[in-house]
Design goal:
Layout: H1 10-27, E1 29-33, H2 34-53, H3 56-65, H4 69-82, E2 91-98, E3 105-111
Antiparallel strand pairs: 1-3, 2-3
Helix pairs in contact: 1-2, 2-3, 2-4
Length: 113
């Protein structure tokens, strides 16, 4: 399986994903670079699918991937309820344009309601 390394070693990449995923589910919308958004999108979709399952094992798997238990409660409560009728495609990426400092392509990653 191919994935983006994002210029980080595996532990730094895992910590970055944990942090971004927690912020994403907390605010339901984040602004980030395109490469990070494409990686986070797939992980977020997997977590929402876990939340839709709703059992204890799924909750424990989600807690392992997110930094905040309040966010896990929100994911299994509000977000899973919003997405219960959807078969996938829970996230949307909207392109913004280049970042001013280094011209990195910026996007908004948001939940589809």
């Amino acid at each position: 399986m191919a994935y983006r390394k994002l210029g980080r070693n595996s532990s730094a990449r895992k910590a970055l994903f944990k942090s971004i995923l927690t912020s994403f589910f907390k605010h339901e919308r984040i602004e980030t670079t395109e490469a990070k958004a494409k990686e986070i999108s797939g992980l977020a979709e997997q977590l929402i699918t876990l939340a839709k399952r709703g059992d204890l094992a799924a909750r424990r798997q989600a807690i392992a991937q997110l930094a905040d238990e309040d966010v896990v409660r929100k994911l299994f409560g509000e977000i899973a309820e919003q997405c219960k009728d959807r078969q996938g495609g829970y996230t949307r990426i909207l392109k913004l344009g280049p970042r001013r400092g280094d011209a990195a392509p910026m996007v908004i990653l948001e939940l589809v309601k």
